Amino acid sequence: MNTVNQTVAIVTGGGSGIGLAITEKFIQNNITTVIVGRDPEKLHQAKQNLGTLCIPIVADLSDLEAIPALVKQVITQFGRIDILVNNAGINMKKEFTEVTNEDFQKVIQTNLVGVFALSREVVKTMLPNKKGSIVNISSMAAQYGIPKVIAYSASKTAIEGMTRAMATELSPQGIRINCIAPGFIATDMTSKAFNQDVERKNKALGRTPMGVMGMPGDIGDAALFLATDSSRYITGVVLPVDGGNSIGF
């Protein structure tokens, strides 16, 4: 059971990439962090590396029916949820006319509906405490148009709108909602994509004024800031962490 002063966070997609970097920052700051993901091996590895404050739970957030039980499990074990980071997401690269209805719905289900449903259940547990912080993860795909990722772009643009709507409704009750829009971050996923498409990599870096890719830890630092009282008077913002990419030419 949670001790009175222990802060408890949930990070979805916390087993790898940006989610893992956020989890690391939280744990370095003594935050008990429940990592949720679909890959038991990745979660187990993260637990091995990060120790007792890292709590893995295997779950698929596209399965909406299972979300209330997931939240109940965390509350039963720790008594509270102070922070939620909605980081889990899927992408699909396809020509616009080749994207099927099912393709589109699959991305929307995980990236948007899953985020909504989990946030709703977590907010129910935050309201009695009149305190909480939710950090959503958006994308440069919501800042400007990127070809061949129509469903992903739609989902991330919606996340930004949802962030503002949630912040307006919930901030009077002590719950802050903010969003991070990462630029090009050096993860296994982006490295793989860029190594197969050098032209795209050069284009990405060419429009990033700082001229380099970010590190997962850069998103971790921003998430820690937005999740904690360091940002106690900030709500409803979308913070680009992108080396200037979103304003670059």
TrEMBL record:
Q: Does the keyword DNA damage apply?
A: no
GO MF: oxidoreductase activity, acting on the CH-OH group of donors, NAD or NADP as acceptor; quinone binding
Please provide the Gene Ontology terms (biological process) for this protein: fatty acid biosynthetic process
* InterPro entries attached to this UniProt entry: NAD(P)-bd_dom_sf, Sc_DH/Rdtase_CS, SDR_fam
The superkingdom listed in its UniProt entry is Bacteria
Its keywords, alphabetically, are: Oxidoreductase
Q: What is the similarity comment for this entry?
A: Belongs to the short-chain dehydrogenases/reductases (SDR) family.
Protein name in the entry: SDR family oxidoreductase
From the broadest rank down, the organism's phylogenetic lineage runs: Bacteria, Pseudomonadati, Bacteroidota, Chitinophagia, Chitinophagales
